Amino acid sequence: MKRIVILGAGMVGRAIAIDLSKKYQVTSTDIDKNALDLLSGKSNIRTAGLDVTDHSALSLAIKDSDLVVSAVPGCLGLQTMIQVINQKKDLVDISFLPEDILYLDPLAKENNVTVVMDCGVAPGMPNYIVGYHNRRMRLDEVEYMVGGLPKIRTFPFEYKAPFSPCDVIEEYTRPARYVQNGHIVVKPAMSDTEYVHFDSVGTLESFNTDGLRSLIYTMKQIPFMKEKTLRYPGHIQLIRALKDSGFFEKESLVMGEWKLFPLILLQRFCSKHGN
Q1: Are the beta carbons of 160 and 145 closer than 8 angstroms?
Q2: Is the pLDDT at 122 greater than 90, yes or no?
Q3: Domains of the chain with CATH codes
Q4: Neighbour count for residue 54 (Cβ, 10 Å)
Q5: What is the mean predicted confidence (pLDDT) over 6-15?
Q6: Is 175 helix (H, G, I), strand (E, B) or coil?
Q7: Mean pLDDT of the region 117-145
Q8: What percent of the chain has pLDDT over 70?
Q9: Is residue 237's pLDDT more than 70?
Q10: 274 pLDDT higher than 70
Q11: Which one of 32, 107, 176, 260 has the largest count of C-beta atoms within 10 Å of its C-beta?
Q12: Strand partners of residue 206
């Protein structure tokens, strides 16, 4: 039986562990014991505490694995990926890391491993769908819209993120790349906002996000490609207000004797309220 180690036991990492455990020997790891406790009732899933920034501990955790799945926050994605490659382990990564990791191709080949990046819902499924249709027909333009929305709209964000808050915020801050007339165009996140109506859902608003990822380089023959993300109307206005008020700043703010970290406070608020 294949042995798979999953790095990260958040909502997505736990779902992956439960799904893969039906056929494989799975070990789920995380620095957060509470996250691992949610898998305690699954007798066929092993759990282990792990700080992926501890390279020695990470190397030991994956030593006997046949495959590693990385479901860590994007800010930890690159160094985790490099460490796994250097341990000569095949890797599937869903971390939405901000860096362009195609430069790691020689390192992966040197270690004789396969790395599948951006293998989540999005980026992930749209990339496979575009690749599938590209083999069946000539594509002149690709535009897809993504965004899992809760059935119940809860104030203030009317959104529930199934992944880490810091990566949700990346969608609102990371410049969005798309392809126009065969050239890469870079626009601010949340640009080109427009309303889109779906009969079964109602009216939503869409905006540019940086989800094309490797498609920009692997599908150069398609002259127009764009990803847009969907939210309930009014969501982006709120997010822009937070951004303009400095809540996305990574540096600390000094207010008298207090030192505040707005981004950390916002992330904790999002986690507490399930947004």
Answers
A1: no
A2: no
A3: 3-116 (3.40.50.720), 125-149+161-243 (3.30.360.10)
A4: 13
A5: 93
A6: coil
A7: 92
A8: 90
A9: yes
A10: no
A11: 176
A12: 194, 230
